[in-house]
């Protein structure tokens, strides 16, 4: 029975090797489909309206909850982004943001873009594209159809 031993130097060399970071693949708004996730997009914020704001008036233990619906878009179309809590402050009309690990939520049959705790919203330098405002993907209504395998 042969045993292999590694020197401490070889062990530390192996543990210092970080996995290679993948470059993000940027998605365009018109490529978004229901039930998908892991999208990285660069979008401009067109509008933002707060739809829910619960303060700390009831108890100090409850966190403040803020939800805003923001119309965001790029040169291929627009979609409603649901911003939560700290994200609401970043989503000011006119700013350009990078949405990392965004997912599509369905709300009343239409698509909404959202970034949960596994993603990030970052404000970036203004993008040099014109938003195509006549292609709003959140206005397309989807119907859930169950497919039965025969």
Automatic annotation (TrEMBL):
Residues 1-22 are annotated as: Disordered. Residues 1-15 have a biased composition (Low complexity). Signal peptide: none annotated. InterPro entries: NA-bd_OB-fold, OB_Ssb-like. SUPFAM superfamilies: Nucleic acid-binding proteins. It holds the Pfam family OB_Ssb-like. This is Uncharacterized protein At4g28440. PANTHER family: OB DOMAIN-CONTAINING PROTEIN (PTHR31472:SF13), OS05G0244600 PROTEIN (PTHR31472). Residues 32-123 form the Single-stranded DNA binding protein Ssb-like OB fold domain. CDD domains: SoSSB_OBF. It comes from Ziziphus jujuba. It comes from the Eukaryota.
